[in-house]
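Intended use. Records like the one below are meant for learning the mapping from a protein sequence to its folded structure. Do not use them to infer anything beyond what is encoded.
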Amino acid sequence: MNRVGALLALLVLPAMGMATELVPPGGYYLPATLKKGTAETCPVVARPYVGDLNIPSKYEGSGPARDQLNVDSNARYQARAEQIRVLEKTVNKQVAAWLRLGREGHLDCALEWLGQWAAAEALLSREFTHTGKSMRKWALGSISSAYLRLKFSRSQPLLGREAQTRPIEAWIARLGEQVVDDWRDQPLERLNNHQYWAAWAVMAASVVVDRRDLFEWSVAQLRIGISQVDAEGYLPNELHRETRALAYHNYSMGPLLMMLAFAQANGIDLREANHRAIQRLATRVEQGIEDPQRFADKTGFKQELEDLQEDGKFAWLEPYCALYRCAASTEAWRRSIEPLKTYRLGGDITQLFAAPTQVGGRD
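Structure written out for the chain above:
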């Protein structure tokens, strides 16, 4: 490139947003609280999952609606998935403890777990079922969103630990690339909550490794999700889940709202897209929670509510009420069940969105 070309690139690239570092919402900059004492003993690192991801679905054999639990398949699913879930929960627990107490032992523990799984190149198998690749994307979302709290904390706990963090971040980048490969080019008529969770995982990873290509893929999936909300606030592909339509509408909210907040933090405001589709969807879901009969009437099936019994299932309320002006009834509901925590979205979501200014990037 000649000097004129180089000068033009310097002028044009920032305007296109290509030279800007990706950032998370402001709550991720929270510093650790320092308290005297020592960290509890770090649990022995779970054996890294390096085998195939041929994990069965808990709904195996239940037909197109995939809404009837298969007891035998569920037992095999739980057994195969446990090793991965232990990683997700332990890393989140150690990061939360570090934020709460500021003790180096918790930081060491989280990095030790991530480091051993990274060194083993865990979760990168190209042999997988639909459920197996789902476990990969859920794990990526969990560890990336926890790691972001270390990477962007004003306490700067990772400063001077580059030899330890470099392979972890390289592993997160490879997982992000693999999740894109897993979920790209899906038929539009089949895109549902799985696509949103995959996109959320890749978006969190993209900010960890500052990869604009991964971020843009995630934003494209978010735009698809927004476009799928119909005029009544339903997601037609989740209505196909029949008895679990309400539960899967609610399950879709977490990744969609987190991606909306991350996009906003990076200068992409999609709140108004498709005539405020996300707000319309949130209103529909809240009405369904209040009266599941609405979804029963819509689908023709009585709704299974077993997946709506934990407060953490409604953690999406935090980014939602930070991005939109919540109704008084929504605000009262949210306050009544706080703090809202879920390890697959970043741990304590109430803490992340405690102030309205915590939506928009560096504070």
